[in-house]
Write a structure and sequence with these properties.
The complex is a heterodimer.
Chain A (H helix, E strand, L loop, with lengths): L1 H19 L11 E6 L9 H13 L3 E6 H5 L6 E2 L2 E2 L3 E5 L5 E2 L2 E2 H10 L3 E5 L6 H9 L2 E3 L3 E2 L4 E2 L3 E2 L3 E2 L2 E7 L1 E2 L16 E3 L4 E3 L6 E6 L4 E2 L22 E7 L5 E5 L16 H12 L6 E12 L11 E2 L3 E12 L4 E4 L6 E6 L1 E7 L1 E2 L5 E6 L5 E9 L7 E10 L14 H23 L2
Parallel strand pairs in A: 1-2, 1-5, 5-8, 8-21, 23-31
Antiparallel strand pairs in A: 3-4, 6-7, 9-17, 10-11, 12-19, 13-14, 14-16, 15-18, 18-20, 20-21, 22-24, 24-25, 24-29, 26-27, 26-30, 28-29, 30-31
Chain B lengths: L1 H29 L9 E13 L5 E8 L9 E4 L2 E11 L9 E8 L6 E5 L1 E4 L4 E9 H8 L4 E10 L7 E11 L16 H5 L19 H11 L1 H12 L11 H23 L3 H31 L1
Parallel strand pairs in B: 3-10
Antiparallel strand pairs in B: 1-2, 1-4, 4-8, 5-6, 5-9, 7-8, 9-10
Classes of the chains: A alpha+beta, B alpha+beta.
């Protein structure tokens, strides 16, 4: 009995020790993914997507669980229990879902995202109000115009760029210029077959971006099928319609929102469309398999000025030349390792209330980012700020305080040529004093 | 027996045929009949510029029929005029027919995310003919994209699901200028939106150091420095002409040498302090030198007084 107690104690303590050790790899890569299937998505209609998700999840050291919406909505389903999440990423292929784990969908998934976890949300023309509300919380507003007695939303129409003359089957090519952070170049080579409800993103929301936008010929029709003349409806016309939106929250949680569940189906995965590639890229991005960044090893040192060159000092002097270095790494889910980041648009600012200078880092042979800056001729408490904000990449924000002191009294310029007359006058006075003394004392 | 077998086979074949026919009929019933698409012809794409005259009457200042799909030169839109884009659509449809999409888009040439959109009005122009009109004002453009001046590309779309081929054309450039805002101030281009500016590379800049104080040219400073020694040089002949001499020196030579050496050393220490000697090291040296100079000076003066008394 005593041995059993001891063993139990050891197990409990051991577990808590293990739980306390942080994951040395990415905190944001999905390890436990939940996929919820609802109306419009079954294991048969979306088998390609599910198989792809499972392969990647297993390959990248994670697990995936697929549940039906009815089971997921039940109170007995443990999505969140005692404020602990059972999953770290969520793929919702259930536009009709209203509850998750017994809680209202919008609220619980919003909390999920606030905790730093990622979600992929798909809508359809029959999506629930909870899905709409959730999208709105993420910064994406779905178009609202209902037909069939209010049960169905109108779909985006395009009479020019469509599949086989069907205006609702859009062939979209308005991919975001994200330098491969979300959608790869291969995915952008072909059009995306998309059919669903359009959405718009507020101009004042910098966190959301359109990964795939509609053409200038597209529009979200009224229930009678016409272009709306109402004030404010301009955001549902043309390239302002977002077909697939991506949201990167300030805590680096990611969300993908689209109004087309058909985009992810097997029927859309055709050789002439890029649906398979786009779905893979979007799920890679939202599950944290790509475009995750971390910054480390920030340092600064004197290059030229008061002190030992190459040494990091606690205080620098005005006009000192400084060298700033840092390392930025990108997570590779395939290799399960952090690799040097490839882009060369990282910038550093030297700030005291406002930036006094801004410089773009260059990279040395080891992949370290290096920038040479000159401390301004203003003294005070400055900080180096690295603030990296690009579509699709996780945010980097780093600050390090560096005081700058003025010249000491003995560090100013000396023996200035313009002061030579003054030096000469003093020496002249000294000499005159000496000679005058001689003449006064010894004149007879 | 054989007759029975043949009968069974025939019945089976009939069943299969009936099933196949049923399937064919079912499939045919499910087939959606092809929609009747109608051809359209778009003519008379015209751009009219209208302006209010002094009497408050709107008159057409210019009218251009767009031939070859493009304006001859860019049209101008400003606060006091209006542009009217009209086109005729010949389509075999009832007179109350309205195309689903009647859109005029003005897209800014540089800031591509800024575009103003106008929905056209439709009226019947006789049997099988529609007239689509787009009214463009600077105020309407300002409401959508702000006071963004510059060149805009114009595109018009007339589309419907019933058309065999919908109409879309870009017909040239329109230069928009907003002169003044409501409060009378000059209009400025709107700032980039949060999304436009959030992700772009920010401009690099360096801190501009305070300019160095202005100084005289080195040559002038050197000339004046030389000039500072002129009084010293002049002092010797002036003093000699005034009768100065050193006749008393031999009688108190030793004291004089010591005293003047101490004075010269004091001046030297002061120069050395100016160059590099720390203050707290200078004070003891000066104290010692001044004490010695005082003593030597006392002896010198006593010697001079003795000589004078003699």
């Amino acid at each position: 009995m005593g041995i059993m107690l001891v063993l139990m104690l050891v197990l409990v303590c051991g577990q808590s020790v293990i739980a306390a050790v942080p994951d040395p790899t990415s905190l944001h890569q999905a390890r436990k993914t939940l996929v919820v299937l609802g109306a419009g998505a079954t294991e048969k209609t979306h088998s390609g997507l599910l198989a792809s998700l499972r392969t990647r999840s297993d390959g990248h050291g994670g697990t995936m669980e697929v549940v039906k919406s009815k089971e997921a909505a039940a109170k007995s389903f443990h999505f969140r229990k005692w404020d602990r999440w059972s999953y770290d990423s969520l793929v919702l292929l259930a536009p009709d879902l209203t509850h998750l784990g017994g809680e209202k969908l919008a609220g619980v998934v919003n909390d999920f995202v606030l905790s730093g976890r990622s979600v992929m949300l798909t809508g359809s023309d029959e999506m629930s109000s909870e899905v709409r509300d959730l999208a709105k919380l993420l910064g994406v507003s779905f178009h609202e115009s209902f037909v069939d007695g209010g049960s169905k939303n109108t779909r985006v129409l395009d009479f020019f760029q469509n599949d086989g003359g069907h205006a609702e089957q859009i062939l979209a090519t308005g991919y975001a210029d994200d330098a491969g952070a979300i959608l790869s170049d291969a995915a952008k080579k072909k059009p995306l077959l998309w059919s669903g409800v359009g959405s718009s993103l507020g101009d004042d929301n910098p966190l959301a971006a359109g990964a795939v936008r509609a053409h200038s010929t597209s529009f979200c029709p009224t229930r009678k099928g016409f272009m709306s003349k109402k004030k404010g409806m301009g955001r549902f016309v043309g390239a302002q319609i977002s077909l697939v939106s991506v949201v990167q929250a300030r805590n680096n949680a990611r969300a993908v929102v689209t109004g087309s569940i058909d985009m992810l189906s097997d029927a859309s995965r055709r050789p002439e469309t890029s649906n398979a590639a786009v779905c893979e890229d979007l799920t890679d991005w939202v599950l944290g398999y790509k475009s995750l960044l971390r910054q480390r090893d920030f340092s600064h040192a004197l290059v030229e000025g008061q002190g030992v060159p190459g040494q990091t000092q606690e205080v620098y002097r005005i006009k000192d030349k400084l060298r700033v270095t840092t390392r930025v790494e990108e997570w590779s889910a395939a290799k399960q390792a952090w690799l040097p980041f490839g882009r060369e648009d990282l910038q550093v600012e030297f700030t005291m209330l406002d930036p006094h200078l801004r410089k773009t880092f260059s990279k040395d042979l080891q992949g370290t980012y290096v920038a040479d800056v000159t401390a301004p001729d203003v003294y005070g408490v400055f900080k180096f700020v690295v603030d990296y904000n690009r579509v699709g990449y996780s945010y980097i924000h780093f600050e390090e305080q560096v005081p700058i002191r003025p010249y000491r009294h003995d560090e100013y310029e000396r023996f200035i040529v313009a002061a030579y007359p003054y030096y000469a006058s003093i020496f002249s006075t000294m000499g005159a004093f000496f000679l005058f003394g001689l003449s006064v004392l010894y004149t007879k | 027996m054989k007759h029975c077998r043949g009968g069974t086979r025939l019945a089976g074949c009939r069943a299969v045929l009936a099933l196949a026919l049923g399937l064919v009929l079912f499939g045919a019933a499910r087939c959606t009949p092809q929609k009747n698409l109608v051809p359209i012809e778009v003519t008379d794409l015209t751009l009219d510029t209208t302006e209010e005259n002094a009497g408050g009457v709107t008159e057409t200042k210019s009218s251009e029929v767009i031939i070859g799909g493009s304006l001859k030169e860019a049209a101008h839109l400003h606060d006091s005029n209006e542009l009217l884009v009209t086109l005729s659509v010949l389509v075999d449809k009832p007179s109350d027919f309205k195309p689903q999409q009647r859109l005029l888009t003005l897209s800014h040439a540089e800031r591509k995310t800024r575009a103003a959109k106008f929905v056209g009005d439709v009226r019947s122009a006789g049997e099988g003919s529609l007239r689509v009109e787009f009214r463009v004002t600077a105020e309407a453009v300002e409401k959508q994209v702000g006071t963004l001046n510059g060149e805009y590309s114009a595109e018009v779309i007339v589309a419907d699901s019933a058309f065999e081929e919908s109409y879309r054309t870009s017909f040239g450039k329109i230069v928009v200028s907003h002169a003044h805002q409501e409060d009378g101030s000059l209009s400025v281009d709107p700032e980039p939106s949060a999304r436009e500016s959030a992700y772009e590379l920010r401009k690099e800049f360096e801190h501009v150091m305070r300019p160095a104080d202005k100084r005289a040219p080195s040559a002038i400073s050197l000339v004046f420095a030389g000039a500072m020694f002129c009084p010293l040089v002049l002092l010797v002949p002036v003093a000699a002409s005034a009768g100065a001499n050193l006749k008393k020196l031999p009688s108190v030579f030793l004291s004089a040498v010591l005293f003047h050496a101490a004075v010269a050393a004091t001046l030297g220490v002061i120069v050395y302090y100016w160059l590099s000697l720390p203050f707290l090291k200078t004070l003891p040296i000066l104290s010692g030198l001044s004490a010695f100079a005082a003593l030597a000076g006392f002896h010198l003066l006593r010697g001079l007084c003795k000589e004078k008394a003699d």
